[in-house]
Amino acid sequence: MMTHAMSMRASPDVDARFLLHAAALADTSAGLTAPHPNSACLIARGTTVVGDGFLAGQGTTAAEVQACLKAGDLAQGATAYLNLEPGDCHGDDSAVSALIQAGISRAVIGLRHPLQHFRNKAIKDLTNANIEVDILGENLTQGTSIKEACKACQTVNAPLLYRAAFKAPFSTLKYAMTLDGKIATSSGHAAWISSSLSRQQVFSTRARSDAVIVGGNTVRRDNPRLTTRKDGGHLPVRIVMSCGLNLPDEANLWDVSDTPTILMTQKGAREDFQERLQRKGVEIVEFDFLSPKTVADYCYKRGFLSILWECGGTLAAPAISSGVIHKVMAFVAPKIIGGARAPSPVGDMGMIEMTQALNLEDILFEQVGPDMLISGYLQPIPDLSYRSSEWIETVNIISEKSSSDLRSVLSFNQAWDAYGAFSNFSPHSINVASSNGKLVRWKTVEHYYQAQKFEGVQHTLAVELVEKIQASECPEEAERLGRSLQRKRPDLVRPDWDMAKMEVIYRALYSKFTGHPHLKSLLLSTAGSVLVDDSSRESRGFLGDLLMKLRTQLLLQESAGNANEFSLGDTCVL
Fold first, then answer.
1. Which residue of 23, 194, 238, 347 could cross-link 317, Cys pair, CB 3.0 to 4.6 Å?
2. Residue range(s) occupied by CATH 1.10.357.40 in the chain
3. Record's PANTHER family (predicted)?
């Protein structure tokens, strides 16, 4: 059992102050790479911070590892403050190991992990290592500052809490209106209601979202781009909802050179139009019945944590009525335009008395230039603390167990899913031989996959991009770099890529699962189940099939006692 030099216990106010600091630090990563839990770590001796760090994205160095490295020997006997219990991918215990090896004597955690397959695991491991663990809001409950810190830790990971509690992405409705409640003139003209400062805040909110949703009216009237107006950083997927596809042939959203667009419609709608957009690279998703609820359910399965609805009143009303909207952001401009037919931000919801009005909670008022931003929650952030969520936890465990016993399909998407380690974005490095036979280390499978698109191409842009991809900090950035150049300069993609990409990714998967024994065990444990990649990434159509082929190969090797190197010609017959 490891022993530690015990540090002096800080006061509750000091604990709360450091947790507030950790929550604020964690929030700085939102919008850099999404989606991922927002986590940070501070290491303090008394009232002095000696190390800190935050998780920049999936596949990057854990916040706890960064903080321990900065603290060095000063971490011995110190207190670690974590806004969120560690847990980002199956088998990745680097965060907990760093705290134990650094000699931390106490850990103060702001929030138990909302996802059941991570919940309480790190807390148990820390406790078993003789580290004192305090949970904010549970055994640290006294004082206003404690409540503020609890709220901050919940808010910074609200999307994850909504996902865990409601099986839905966290959805925010954003709109700008005049003082008399109009979002456009009677003619439909709406540029611009809010100030440039308000629009900058909207761009920042988009950058923190995984997808932005608009309806057909917005596309026809405004022809939006729905970008963040920034160079680099995270760009959300653009989603257009339209039942009849009465949409223009040319629109900014049909340009997918920088970020994808998904058009969601009902089956059979304007199939010729769908084909034209598909040729441009727009993804088409058809539903038997298109509604805000079906779209939200689909986004949940695709692994989106945060959705920003920038639609007009026609779509906003059913979205609110169906319960998919959790938060509202309303920019109110000091302008009056009048007009009996001028549209309002929310259409008719069938209410005839004020007693039926929906009330917001946790309301905030913020002046943004000449405008007033009013925000609040239609559905409060779920409280998943130990006591309040014990029944939820029990129900989830029972339902997950019963469904896992019966189901033959295992889906994965983000690295933090139960089987998220199968994702190309999981934080597992690989070593693959280059064309000259030298082993090269890649941070993730996605890094390797994106770089191989341009391998061997003798052009300055291609050579420089491969170097940038290899140096990129996280797989999200590697994906952006690779897909962007592929769309803008398809002539630089290696000519055999369509034929070679399956072999490329299979070779990477072989290295990943043979190089990390716990991943191999996880893959073999799925024998008999169908593996399905539910993500929106390039590999979605074939990654599950390749993993099942790899699983078969590894099972055959084990049964034959054969640990030979991967032979591409013998094993990757597709």
1. 347
2. 411-571
3. 2,5-DIAMINO-6-RIBOSYLAMINO-4(3H)-PYRIMIDINONE 5'-PHOSPHATE REDUCTASE, DIHYDROFOLATE REDUCTASE FAMILY PROTEIN (AFU_ORTHOLOGUE AFUA_8G06820)
HSE-CB of 350 using CA atoms within 13 angstroms: 4
* CATH code of the domain occupying 12-156: 3.40.140.10
Angle of CA points 109, 113, 115, to nearest 5°:
180
CA torsion, points 59, 60, 63, 67, in degrees to nearest 10?
140
d(CA 193, CA 375): 18
Tokens 């335009």 -> residue: 337
Which residue is listed with tokens 């006294």?
Answer: 142
Quick one: tokens of 56? 């920049």
Q: Report residue 379 as tokens.
A: 């559905």
Amino acid at 273: F
pLDDT of residue 307: 96
Q: Would you state the structure tokens that stand for residue 487, as one six-digit string?
A: 């769309």
Domain spanning 161-349+357-377 has what CATH number? 3.40.430.10
SS3 140: strand
For 375, counting Cβ atoms within 10 Å of its Cβ (0-12 exposed, 13-18 middle, 19+ buried), the class is middle
Which of 28-37, 276-285, 350-359, 402-411 reaches the highest mean pLDDT? 276-285
Which amino acid makes up residue 190?
A: A
CATH number for the segment(s) 411-571 = 1.10.357.40
Kindly report, residue by residue over 463-501, the tens digit of the pLDDT: 999 999 999 988 988 998 998 899 889 999 999 999 999
The Cα–Cα gap between 550 and 568 comes to 11
Q: Which residue has the higher pLDDT, 392 or 26?
A: 26
Distance CA 324, CA 130 (A): 43
pTM: 0.85
The pLDDT tens digits for 144-171 are 788 899 999 999 999 999 999 999 999 9
Query: Which pair of structure tokens corresponds to residue 101?
Result: 């090896």
Token pair of 552, please?
Answer: 């078969």
Give the C-alpha separation, 468 to 483, whole Å.
Answer: 13
Question: Where are the domain boundaries for CATH 3.40.430.10 in the chain?
Answer: 161-349+357-377
Domain with CATH 3.40.140.10 in the chain: 12-156
For residue 23, which of 109, 104, 87 has the smallest C-alpha distance? 109
The per-residue DSSP string of 57-118 comes to: STTSPPHHHHHHHHHGGGGTT-EEEESS---SSTT--HHHHHHHHHT--EEEESS--SSTTT
At a CB cut-off of 8 Å and minimum separation 6, what does 533 contact? Answer: 411, 412, 413, 422, 423, 539, 540, 541, 543, 544
Element (DSSP H or E) covering residue 23: helix 12-27
Residue 283 designated active-site:
no
Per residue in 378-400, pLDDT (tens digit) is 999 988 776 544 434 443 443 34
DSSP-derived 3-state class of residue 467: helix
Dihedral angle of Cα 159, 200, 253, 321, to the nearest 10 degrees: 50
Mean pLDDT value of segment 398-417? 63
Q: Which of 64, 85, 446, 476 is catalytic?
A: 64
Query: Residue 564's pLDDT is what?
Result: 53
